[in-house]
Amino acid sequence: MPVQQRRIQILETATVLIAERGFWGVTLRDVAIMCGITEAGVLHHFSSKAKLLIAVLEYRDEADFVALARLLGIERGDIERTPLPVSLRELCTALITRNAGQPEIVRLYSVLNAEALEPSHPAHAYFQDRETMALSLFRRAMPENDEAIHMSRQILAAMDGLQLRWLRTPDDVDLVPEWENFFERAFL
Q1: Deepest in the core among 59, 70, 152, 187, taking most CB within 10 A?
Q2: Which residues bind DNA (predicted)?
């Protein structure tokens, strides 16, 4: 198998396993067995379990940014612009729509985000940086004012909380309409 294909196989396999078991519940051996290679083969591509974890998260983030841009009808690079070329409502709806189609990835981030509250966790700094990035993304989609940072935090908290309810009881929570209803009442 070509090197890039093997790396992607390892990343996708690790994504599934970590989403199911959390970082601490997965070994390099587990990943290797699922990929049909040895632990040394995994380590050849990712020099440690911690580096594999960060690579999984970065890989998923890029896939999500590409999909988000497509949902918004903009170029991938436009997501970095200030201001964003879309409204806050369009951004939030696209994020929730994307997440509604990938519960296993939302579960991955939810589990890891909770685990990474511990400062010794290998993804602790990653999740701090990711939160800063998410808050910036929301702020760039709204007019700059003294309330923008507070509103950004509230949106992120609401998304996280609603997504947890959806993961726990997917038959009771229809994520996109539930988000739209909440956003309509809370932020407009």
Answers
A1: 152
A2: 27-46
Give, for all 188 residues of the chain, the pLDDT tens digit: 899 999 999 999 999 999 899 899 999 999 999 999 999 999 999 999 999 999 999 999 999 999 999 999 999 999 999 999 999 999 999 999 999 999 999 999 999 999 999 999 999 999 999 999 999 999 999 998 899 999 999 999 999 999 999 999 999 999 999 999 999 999 76
**Nearest CA to 111 among 177, 174, 168?**
168
Which residues have C-beta within 8 Å of that of residue 15, sequence separation ≥ 6?
56, 59, 60, 104, 105, 108
Please identify which residue in the block is written with the tokens 């599934």: 16
This prediction's pTM: 0.91
CA-CA distance, 178 to 183, in Å (whole number)?
Answer: 9
Handedness of CA 133, 136, 140, 142 (dihedral sign): positive
Cβ-contact 107, 19 below 8 angstroms? yes
